[in-house]
UniProtKB/TrEMBL annotation:
It comes from Methylococcus geothermalis. Residues 30-149 form the Pili assembly chaperone N-terminal domain. The lineage of its organism: Bacteria, Pseudomonadati, Pseudomonadota, Gammaproteobacteria, Methylococcales. Transmembrane segments: none annotated. This is Fimbria/pilus periplasmic chaperone. InterPro entries: Ig-like_fold, PapD-like_sf, Periplasmic_pilus_chap, Pili_assmbl_chaperone_N. One of its GO terms (biological process) is cell wall organization. Residues 1-27 form the signal peptide. Keywords: Signal. Coiled coil: none annotated.
Length: 243
């Protein structure tokens, strides 16, 4: 389970503190488990547990949208493909709430589908005399629906030395389902994803990671990568293009 501040983004509390130099900044705490949901034809439902780790009652509104990516931009559209219950929940201090996510359409025979579950706090009225800033939650969890006949991931890897001496590894997804990459390592060193994490590589899309120069053995033009993904561990030897 992870514990997250109820905020629209990591920068929001910082920006609020800078823009509103008030004596009090309030952000509740919410534990979420799991942080990624996977559905199949054999398992069309899943449970997500929310734990209120704050001292206040929380009112949470839940919704699901279809998730696609155009270039580097995520796109969200309304959908009736899935349902989440309850759509609104009240969680007592220290209490828990189980959300049920269910598939309402048949799985696609060959293509994976992607959605996002949004967990949104409904802010309470400010308490009498409160002069601070209330920070409201908006968490977003990926919901991945596997095809009826899932195929092994088809990832094409490439590598290149960067002008600064670092190593850039790129994965191109030529498969039919989104690949969620939790971590990419070379010789035990984790790469830094380019863009926002966690990393999701859509079919036809690509993602790059940057590594320090020392992960590449001296005089070597090949890097052995190890990716921890929703499809299991993927390992490959990647040819590195030298400048």
């Amino acid at each position: 389970m992870i514990s997250l501040p109820l905020a629209a983004g990591r920068l929001l509390p910082v920006l609020a503190a800078l823009l509103f130099p008030s004596p009090q900044l309030v952000a509740a705490q919410l534990g979420v488990s799991p942080t990624r949901i996977e559905l199949t034809a054999a398992k069309p439902t899943a449970a997500v547990t929310l734990k209120n780790e704050s001292g206040d009652r929380l009112v949470i509104q839940n919704s699901i949208v279809a998730w696609t990516r155009e270039g580097k931009e995520d796109r969200y559209t309304p959908t009736k493909d899935l349902i989440v219950t309850p759509p609104i929940a009240t969680v007592a201090p220290g209490g828990s709430q189980v959300l049920r996510v269910g598939l309402r359409r048949p799985v696609d025979p060959h293509r994976g589908l992607a959605y996002r579950l949004f967990v949104q706090e409904v802010p309470p009225p400010p308490k009498a005399g409160f002069a601070g800033v209330q920070i409201a939650l908006r968490l977003s969890l990926p919901v991945l629906v596997q095809p009826a006949a899932p195929a092994p991931p088809r990832i094409v890897w490439s590598g290149a030395k960067r002008p600064d001496g670092g190593l850039e590894i790129t994965a191109r997804n030529e498969g039919s389902a989104l690949l969620a990459v939790d971590e990419l390592t070379i010789r035990g060193t984790a790469g830094r994803p380019q863009g926002r994490g966690p990393v999701s590589v859509f079919p036809g899309g690509r993602q790059s990671w940057v590594f320090p120069a020392e992960v590449l053995e001296a005089e070597s033009e090949t890097a052995h990568v190890r990716a921890s993904t929703n499809a299991g561990v993927i390992e490959s030897d990647v040819d590195v293009e030298m400048p």
